[in-house]
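INFO worker-7 received task bundle
INFO bundle size: 2
INFO processing item 0
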Amino acid sequence: MSRATPPPSPGQILFEIDPQTPQLARLTLSNPGRMNALTRAMWRQLRTLFDGLAEREPQLRAVVVQGAGGHFATGADLEEFPRFHFDAASARSFHETEPAPALQAMLDCDIPLVARIDGVCVGGGLEIAACCDIRIAGHASRFGAPIAKLGFPMAPDELAIMLQAIGRATIAEMLFEARLFDAHEALQRSIVHRVVADETVGAEAEATALRIARLPGLAARINKQTLRQLARGALTESERAAHYRYAASDEHREGVAAFLGKRRAD
């Protein structure tokens, strides 16, 4: 049975499991009329949704992360900034208790995430896209973090995520020059994995997610865990032991049996 958030309203995260393919879900960043600028409430919703998602929804094998209304997302909702961002303590509290934990929850999620990137993808929106495993954009998409124009740097925890995802050279240009990259440059810089015609971004992202969703889920989840562990350094002995828990699984047995029997795996 499909589980969905209430109907869209300004500034919220929408989440729905596909009723036809329950292994697939869609997460939508929605802030109508503001290019999906991320409010504090949206950051908190994002963290709540991703915390424990893989455990709550064990059938899920892929999530499409997208924006509403023709854009992925711009940065933070600046209308909120005068209330807290001009004081060092409150600015630090915001960045370290709202965006950073939400992004970390995405990184910690064992379900593969596919970013469908339409239009603008900057600031906090780019940080969210950077936490996705596969990023697919349209030719008209634009990428960057032009916060230097606003007189503030990228917070350390958020910068660490960007550094890991897109590298020092690219993030340095984004931050120091406040420049935006077009889709072609983004592909060259490995900010995105694929660029397609604007009208086919949705179809390409959905097809990608479906390909993932139709494959065994345990292997994908273990791969995500191992990628995180390797990014931190060598695996511990307990992590190595846990990695091989797939060996006796039904998915592994069926996959090998189907290959040997020259038939389609069930």
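INFO item 0 finished
INFO processing item 1
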Amino acid sequence: MEVKQEKDQITICQRAYALKILESYNMSRCNPVDTPMEERMKLTTAEPGSKFDVTRYKSVVGSLKYLVNTRPDIAYALGVASRFLKAPAKEHWSLVKRILRYIAGTLDYGCKFGKGEGVGLNLLGYTDSDCQGDLVHRKSTSGIIFYLGSNLVTWASQK
């Protein structure tokens, strides 16, 4: 993790680690995208004959899970990709590649913690859920995010 200290804020990010992941999967020179996942994307289990290399898929998803420590913006997309670890297909690999392309365009993103105006002890939380959005198991995915003042303190996305 990289820690950048400035006058009114501290930022933690994992730029070097993200670059290492991109290089490992030959994505360091890819075209970046604006979002980690297409809007309203729904994935199902693989059809026979469309399987992808399970070891490679697990490896990249595992690497990205460590990156979520400072990147709440990829938590949901990575959670969706993680559902298909047992039998990934080419469409699941496309999602992982999109996450990598998003990371390539947002290498300096991380968590910022500031001081000064607007940073009090007010706890503010947001939550959302889709209603049975998982097409395979008919379960919902929920997401939460909490701020203490203007500082992000916790986040999660889970089925």
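INFO item 1 finished
INFO post-check item 1: Strands lie at 2-5, 9-13, 110-114, 123-129, 142-148, 151-158.
INFO post-check item 1: Residues 2-119 form one domain.
INFO worker-7 idle
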